Amino acid sequence: MNHLRRAFLTKAGAVGSLAVFASLLKPATVLAAAWNSLAFSAKEPAEAINSAGYGGASESKEIEIKAPDIAENGAVVPITATSNIPGTTSMAIFVEKNPAPLIADFEFSNGAEAYISTRVKMAKTSVVRVSVKAGGKTYTNSREVKVTIGGCGG
């Protein structure tokens, strides 16, 4: 009986220590950036662009977008974007005809290279827009991607 009691107390102490340690870490608050729920839940492209802080952007060819002219599968469309604008601090990808136009919003710090590569889901043929914040101004560039098989939403 003494062995059972000892094993129970050992395990209970370990579980209690783990709970205290886990409560001190709080990775969601430490590692995650602020979530812009208004921009990500917007249904209209203009609303998403304005909510994300990229409204009134100037067209710029300094933003290079690499995406297929025709995507055979809308569920996995590769998109690569590079900003050659000095002092780029953030980039966002918008797909105009998606149910949620804001796909992703990236922030760069300490002079990081303004380059992103990702795969997005596209509902149908649409304009893909990449917007950039640099030097207190906003810039944008876009290109059309044709989708032959539906991605999000069929």
Keywords:
154 residues, alpha+beta, Immunoglobulin-like, 2 domains, 6-stranded mixed sheet, 3-stranded antiparallel sheet, 27% helix, 36% strand, elongated
Question: Topology of this structure?
Answer:
Blueprint: H1 2-25, H2 27-31, H3 37-41, H4 45-51, E1 58-59, E2 63-66, E3 70-71, E4 77-83, E5 88-95, E6 102-107, E7 115-120, E8 126-134, E9 137-147
Give a structural overview.
This protein is α+β, with helices and mostly antiparallel strands and 154 residues long. It folds into two domains: 1-32, no CATH class; 34-147, SoxY domain (Immunoglobulin-like). Helix content is 27%, strand content 36%. It has four helices and nine strands. The chain has helices at 2-25, 27-31, 37-41, 45-51, and strands at 58-59, 63-66, 70-71, 77-83, 88-95, 102-107, 115-120, 126-134, 137-147. Strands 1, 3, 5, 6, 8 and 9 form a six-stranded mixed beta sheet that branches. Strands 2-4-7 form a three-stranded antiparallel beta sheet, with no helix packed on it.
The parts where pLDDT drops under 50 for at least 5 residues are: 28-32
Shape: elongated
- Total helices: the number is 4
- Helix-strand pattern: HHHHEEEEEEEEE
CATH class of the largest domain: Mainly Beta
Explain briefly what this protein structure is:
The chain is an alpha+beta fold and 154 residues long. Helix content is 27%, strand content 36%. It has four helices and nine strands; from the N terminus they run ααααβββββββββ.
